[in-house]
Write a structure and sequence with these properties.
393 residues, alpha+beta, Butyryl-CoA Dehydrogenase, subunit A, domain 2, 4-stranded mixed beta sheet, binds flavin-adenine dinucleotide
Amino acid sequence: MDFTIPRHVEAIAHRARQFVDDEVIPLESELLRTGADLSIEMLQDLRVKAKAAGLWAPTMPVDWGGMALSIQEIAPVFEAAGRSLLGPMAIHCAAPDEGNMHLLHNWANEQQTERYLAPLARGETFSAFSMTEPPPGAGSDPRMLRTRARRDSGDWVINGHKWLTTYGEIADFFIIMAVTDPDVHPYQGTTQFLAPRDTPGIKILRDVPVMGAKDFGGHVEILYEDLRLPASAILGGEGQGFMLAQSRLGPARLTHCMRWTGIAQRALEIATEYASEREAFGGTLTSHQSVQWMLADSEMELKMGRLLIHEAAWRLAQGEQARVETSIAKVQVAEIIDRVLDRCVQICGGRGISRDLPLSTWYEKARAFRIYDGASEVHRMVVARDVIKRYGA
Ligand SMILES: Cc1cc2nc3c(=O)[nH]c(=O)nc-3n(C[C@H](O)[C@H](O)[C@H](O)COP(=O)(O)OP(=O)(O)OC[C@H]3O[C@@H](n4cnc5c(N)ncnc54)[C@H](O)[C@@H]3O)c2cc1C
């Protein structure tokens, strides 16, 4: 395996880090201090600066204004951007737009590319991926999808109930997973549809309040009620919904890991700085072995996480599906991030809990990563199946 980061990619990662330090962290501090939420105007302002710094849509082709980096090359760039929760949004590599751009780039036809991908890649629109349903619909088990699309005089009419659709408050269009043929296995009978936000039949019920500060764009609950779409709204092909979802979710899980590694790395730096200045019991906190071990465990685990990301990314780059490796990386990195953030809050004591530092916000926000894009238990199930297949009697 070759995990070499080319020189030009190192330079981009360096530039991304500089940009986050100079432009993003001051805004992050301001929002923390005032308790305000990020507005679209603030984001657009950051994006103008990011483009001027030569940082834009790292995964998109150069023709689309992007940087054409491979899945392996984006790792250090996403980590650098991910040193603030605002960084990936600023350089246009945040979920869900980043995964949706990847999906559209691979599967949209010419008209869909022009209508949906082009403005999205330029940062003029936002997008949402609408798969999860509240119980008794599809969550961890996507085969339980209840949203149905039925043919009606050449169109498709969708009815269903979704929730936790990220960016649902601001998305200009939704990518909707719906069952088109209930008589076959869901893996063959499910289709993805592209629906502009203003299509009659899309009813946003509410933004679902989630743990920690409000997320930009929200995580909405939606009713699709007699949502009528033309056949041209199908992304990929009829019955290919799960295949497309898998092609989106594999890399998207890894990019979440890359971005969260940036947050955890910065948390470790903040905690180490605090521990090296703060005195207790006759010395700095760094002179106490239990604090040293928390720092060492965090450093070691972050390194292990990066290696798992690199291995899965390398396999994807070779054209493998890398399902098991992606699951291993997702479980381990999500759990490592939680442990690192927990230790960093602990080391910073009361200041760690306060909103003076971003640690408490990150600690709250990171918790969801063990659930979204597949709960840890579901990914462990994927790994266990592989182990049993290989070694079972
Ligand atoms: C912040 C956030 C953003 C999200 N954004 C989106 C989005 O943009 N689009 C979208 O479609 N969805 C989104 N989701 C939904 C997310 O993908 C689901 O929450 C996730 O797939 C789990 O489904 P569920 O919540 O229905 O949990 P459930 O299916 O009810 O599972 C609950 C728990 O059961 C356990 N469990 C499940 N299966 C197994 C098993 N086989 N073995 C052992 N234990 C198991 C796990 O601990 C799991 O956490 C988002 C969720 C969050 C929290």
